[in-house]
Amino acid sequence: EDALPGIRAAHAAGLRCAAVGALQPYQAAAADAYLASLDGHTLDTLSRLVTRGQERVIHE
Question: Which InterPro entries does this chain map to (predicted)?
Answer without folding.
Answer: HAD_sf (IPR023214)
